[in-house]
Design a protein that fits this description.
Radius of gyration: 15 Å
Largest sheet: none
Shape: flat
Number of domains: 1
Structural class: mainly alpha
Order of helices and strands: HHHH
Number of strands: 0
Length: 114
């Protein structure tokens, strides 16, 4: 899959924004704590803005697959460290299958952005 390198940068920034925002959801205590609540708004704003930019050069399915899979992997790591939520074996197998699906899309798909 031949994708403009800048699209990967934009997608990386989108994923970082999503990780910040999603991690902040729990820390905001149902939007009652100011700073995490602001991180939610800014993080998702950043995530969607840069995902839109990435979609200029990447198919929607590929963009969303990477965004979702890497978001799940990194959110799992962050939640294990920050909140002590350690994934069990079925969770790890499920995450591995999600990542395997993204690898399959990347290696074998011929989709192109329109």
């Amino acid at each position: 899959m031949n994708i403009n390198p800048i699209a990967w940068l934009w997608l990386t920034l989108a994923i970082i924004g999503e990780i910040v925002a999603t991690t902040s959801l729990k820390a905001s205590k149902e939007l009652t704590v100011l700073m995490p609540s602001l991180f939610i708004v800014v993080g998702y704003g950043v995530a969607f803005y840069f995902m839109i930019l990435a979609m200029r050069h990447m198919p929607v399915a590929v963009t969303y697959a990477f965004w979702s899979a890497l978001g799940i992997v990194f959110i799992t790591i962050v939640s294990a460290i920050r909140f002590g939520e350690k994934p069990d074996l079925p969770a790890m197998i499920g995450i591995a299958l999600i990542v395997a699906g993204v690898v399959m899309i990347t290696m074998f798909s011929k989709m192109k952005a329109s």
